[in-house]
Hints:
The complex is a heterodimer of chains A (225) and B (856). With 225 residues, chain A is α/β, with parallel strands linked by helices. Chain A has seven helices and ten strands. Chain A has helices at 44-51, 74-84, 100-111, 117-126, 142-154, 172-189, 200-205; strands at residues 2-13, 16-28, 33-37, 59-64, 67-68, 85-88, 160-164, 192-196, 208-213, 216-222. In chain A, helix 3 crosses helix 4 (117-126). Chain B has 856 residues and is of the alpha+beta class. The chains are: A alpha/beta (225), B alpha+beta (856).
Amino acid sequence: MIDVRGLTKTIRNGSRVVEILKGIDLTVPRGQFLAIMGASGSGKSTLLGLMAGLDAPTEGEVLIDGAEISRLPEDKLAQVRGRKIGFVFQSYQLIPTLTALENVLLPYELNANGDGKQRAITLLETVGLADRLHHYPIQLSGGEQQRVALARAFVLQPPIVMADEPTGNLDSKNGQHVLDLLTERQREAKTTLVMVTHDQQIADRADRRIVVKDGRIIADENNGQ
Amino acid sequence: MDSDQKSPLGWTTAAKIASRELHASRTKFVFVILSVAIGVAALTGVRGFSESFQKALLDQARSIMAADISAQMFRILTPQENAKIDALASSKSVERTWVTEMVSMASRQGDPVPLLVSLKVVDPAVYPCYGKIILHPAGDLRGALTDSTVVVDDNLLVRLHTNIGDQLRIGGQYFRIAAVIEKEPDRLTAGVGMGPRVMMTRGAVEKTGLLEAGSRATERYLFKLGPQSGKVQGIRAELEKILPEAQISDFRETSPAITEGLDHATGLLSLICLVAMVLGAIGVAMAMRAHLQQRIDTLAIMKSIGARSSDILRIYLFQTLLLGLAGSVFGLVLGVGVEWALPSLFGKLLPLHPPLRLPLGAVLAAFGTGILTTLLFCLPPLLDVRKIRPSVVLRKTVEGDAEKPSWSTRLRENKAQWISSIVVLLALGAIAAGLADSALVGKWFTAALAGTLAVVLALSTFTLRTLRAFLNKTRLHLHSALRHGLANLYRPGNQSAAVLAALGVGVMLILSVFLMQHAIVNRMNSDSTTGAPNIFLIDIGQNELAGVKELLAHQVGVNGKVETIPIVTARITAVDGVNAASLKLKNYPRRMLSSVPVTWADAVPEGVKMLQGKWWQTGHADGLAVVDRVAHRLNLHPGSVIEFQSGEEQIRARVAVIYKPEGEHAFARSEFIFPSGPLQGLPVVWYATVHVQPVQIPTLERALFAAYPTVTVINVADILETVEGVIHQITLVIRFLAGFSILSGAVILASSVASTRLRRIREVVVLKTLGATRNRVASVFSIEFALLGLLAGVVGVLFANLLTAVLLRKMDVPYHPEVVTSILSVIATAVLAVVTGWLACFRILGQKPLEVLREE
């Protein structure tokens, strides 16, 4: 479960101080698929980043399974992210010098003991990349790269996956394929999925949808429940 | 609109765009500026120092020579020559004096341990004609130096544990030490002596009996011109006529041997600096290529709105010029530091330390070379802008797996690059020729540097490919941090091969110098520790020979046979009827013909291996044996007739044998061997060689000096120490300058790391997002840098060993691989690479993931 309490974030832009998030309160129960929507610059990606511990809030706190993470030292935070959160980014963020299999294996090597190779291969097979295991990112199409990123996000079976517009750089066919895979894995593993998206259709597939505007949540709706 | 009618981009606009872009990427370009500055600094330092030194020599030219004109010979003047010079001196009001220099032994009263000293015999009433001898306690040389006193180097007091006022024993006579020489104006002209200086009068030396006929002494006749003497060249010409065998020089040349040596050294050291400069320029070219690749989008936009390739070329040419200028200016500032450091590195090799100044010639040479080299090496990457297509704006994806064009197509497509590369090579040759003052040296240097760089680059590429194949085979079996570090070598835009080659060349250069020095010094030491002679006795009189042999035979620690050789000094007056002045000589200074040491042997002596001819049967045969080296230089062969003169005696001999020296024997050092007959009755001195247990050498020296004070003992270990000192000092300077190449290599690495900074930041952030700790990220990057350093070290060490082996073979010195040094060099290069890599990117570790991801 993710608990967000009184979250604010201000940044300095030259001489100007900009308040991106203005006191967000949010609870995401275990296994929920939450879609965060909002216009560009509304603060939705910042909210996702703070929930994932990628940055420290100016005020407020983020709790994952009851433990406060926003004030943890950098290395501790990295460990929390590594063990509890999987990520999928709009621009894939694969390491260009590692093969598809190595990219998927990376979270395993960073955060777990034992050999995760078989699991990584299975996951890549599941996302339809059985014949692309030893290819470098540059040798893969955008859709294929995002599927590698997807496999990487799930390799450690994290309780939470955060996705920042995962289909934003893909054509509709590839986007649909990636989304299907993502939701399928989420349902199977009962993972909490927090996804930032512009796409209403994607948001419609989520369990719950919140809309962020000017740093505040202006709408919070459950879909079909 | 017809594009031909479009006016090109103005230089002002080009300059504006270029400087704004430079400003925006200033962190990245700091390393580029440093790349240029390093070579310019080294060159400024070397040439500045050389010019300052020459200027100081010129300023003090008369003092350095202690005269206006000097005539150096290995014999004293004949009465006829003396009379002619006297006539010249009185008619032209020229003042003259006579200086004799030789080695001898000296000890202090009460302690029989002798010391080898450099003896200088002067007339204190006239010497020095210019400059001043500075003594301690302060006083005039005329007052201090009498027929019963000497003045000495401070070093002699230290080594003999003696003081001013004590008695010094030389040639069996005692002389009071009157003062210490603090400054001797013509010490530079006298060269590096074999021991501390002892100065005495001619009256004093005559009491010692050291100047027996045949003794090895150098005579310098010094002349001071008066106001009525006329021009120096006129007197010099007359002296050359009177003394055709003498080495005559005047103050305008300062010291020919020194200036010539300095010119050669400046040329050589400048070329070493040029290596650093070329590596720096390659670094700039690499940075420029990476920069242009990162600017492809912008350049495509410019092209799509009408900019022509020439317009873009103009912008980046201007940018390169600005970088070259900034680097050269910074290099000049650093160069002052190099010039300041050089005298202390040369140490005692330079008795004259010039004041620190920055001569215009040196500034122009370094500045011009810096800018020119930078512009030249950036030409090929700059020409690449012509290949950028405006369509990149619309379609970023690279068209994959297109068929590779054939060699001929690639050659045709890259015509401009090939032509510019040839221009670069030609220009580099011209620069090298200019710096070395020799077209031949320039040509060979460029060919060698280009060849070495090409081979090192090929080796680097091969090593990286082999490693990649290894990585692909073993990937998942390797530890993940190691695998990731290894894989990083192949990061897009990393230019690992070029970095590796640059760093490798630096390592090669510095290690080769070290290995050469080590091998030569080791060879010298091993020669002295085996049974080879380690003691030379010189100037043994005919009447002393039997006694010296007897003494040696009963001395403890004398191993093996005592070998003796008689030496008669003669001059060659003609060969095959051709007068000495008209002989065609190969690498044989003509003045050497005036003092040739000759010897005799009636049977083939040890150390002589006959190559041609047959040895004579009797002592009165007409025969002469000549060593092959001299025969080659004087163009002698069996049957050649040589005319010698020794004193008033004329000797005519026909060459019967050509021989080559063999082993460490007394006769192996001879050049001309006669039958005993022709040399009978001529003044002779004997030399002896023997091996003595090193610990017994002082005892032997003491016993010999007590019994035969005019016999000089030269301990090879002392000579080796001096030679080693000189080699050490010279190689220290070379290594110091070669170090700039390593620095260039390191800056290239830093520059390459800085140019991939954005990619690295993204990787750090992704790794951190996936749970990597700072340590983990640090270890991945450290492994990458260390591997690069290790590989560069291996490439450099391999090449250095190869180069050293080839050069040593040519010098007939055995080559042994220095495993420990080689391993240490590889490790040191790895450490240097890790430190440099982190200096170029240490702040990226602290990046917050969200900040970077938000910018995506």
